[in-house]
Amino acid sequence: EIVMTQSPATLSVSPGERATLSCKASQSISSNLAWYQQKPGQAPRLLIFGASTRATGIPARFSGSGSGTEFTLTISSLQSEDFALYYCQQYNNWPPVTFGGGTKVEIK
Amino acid sequence: EVQVVESGGGLVQPGGSLRLSCAASGFSLSDYEMNWVRQAPGKGLEWVSYSSTSGGTMYYADSVKGRFTISRDNAKKSLYLQMSSLRVEDTAVYYCTGGGNWFDPWGQGTLVTVSS
């Protein structure tokens, strides 16, 4: 099973600043990585798939990069609605699909 | 609008059974691979089970293998999760979600509480 590790667990950022979230895989997953956003009491929402392709309707301030074992989600200028939990997920070797533990982006 | 809506959650005693349903609208279920993903209170996301478009291929997480069964009725646009021998650690919000690699769309989830 591929283990996904996200860091940091909590990221404190001021509105308008850039946020950089990290996700590392325990072995190479090529570009088979997705990112999700989850707000309290809501279901996850797909942001990025294929490590860097934005899902339909996702603003351009969200960007993904990386391949192999190291990946990054960047939010270029944080808006109030972006403060949430973010999860990465690998789909290179499955089953099982595996998720990272999440990064909480909070207001500084 | 592409949408999935889960139902069937509730309170059940350890060792009991429950059947979750997921109703699809705005798309043809027969075109979508489908999954169940769960989230224990205050915890992260855990993939539970997968169904191919026809229902002929199914996968399960080790934690539920032998206890949970995924199925679907494409004509009724519905996905199901039959859960038996439930344990306290199965307590979670269960999400129905589409996709064979990345997951989209997601339902709002249904809460399953296993407690005596």
Report, as a whole number of angstroms, the end-to-end distance of chain A.
Answer: 35 Å
Q: Main sheet of chain A, how many strands, which sense, barrel?
A: 7 strands, mixed
Stretches with pLDDT under 50, minimum 5 residues of chain B: none
Helical residue percent band of chain A:
under 10%
Strand content of chain B: over 45%
Say how many strands of chain B there are.
10
Series of secondary-structure elements of chain A, N-terminal to C-terminal: EEEEEEEEEEE
Total of DSSP H or I helical runs spanning 4+ residues of chain B? 0
Average of pLDDT of chain A: 97
How many separate helices of chain A? 0
Helix/strand/pairing category of chain A: mainly beta
**Oligomer description:** heterodimer
Biggest pleated sheet of chain B? 6 strands, mixed
Total beta strand runs of chain A: 11
| Rg over C-alpha atoms of chain B, rounded to the nearest angstrom | 13 Å
Regions of chain A with pLDDT < 50 over 5+ consecutive residues?
none
Q: Write out the strand line-up for the largest beta sheet of chain B, numbering strands in chain order.
A: 2-10-9-4-5-6
> Whole-number average pLDDT of chain B?
97
Q: What does this entry show, briefly?
A:
The complex is a heterodimer of chains A (108) and B (116). By secondary structure, chain A is an all-beta fold.
Description of the structure:
The complex is a heterodimer of chains A (108) and B (116). Chain A is mainly beta and 108 residues long. Helix content of chain A is 0%, strand content 49%. Chain A has strands spanning 4-7, 10-13, 19-25, 33-38, 45-49, 53-54, 62-67, 70-75, 85-90, 98-99, 103-107. In chain A, strands 2, 4, 5, 6, 9, 10 and 11 form a seven-stranded mixed sheet that branches. Chain A has a four-stranded antiparallel sheet with strand order 1-3-8-7, with no helix packed on it. In chain A, β5 and β6 (53-54) form a beta hairpin. The radius of gyration of chain A is 13 Å and the shape is globular. Chain B has no helices and ten strands. The A-B interface holds A 32, 34, 36, 42-46, 49-50, 55, 87, 89, 91, 94-102 and B 35, 44-47, 50, 59-62, 95, 101-104, 106-109.
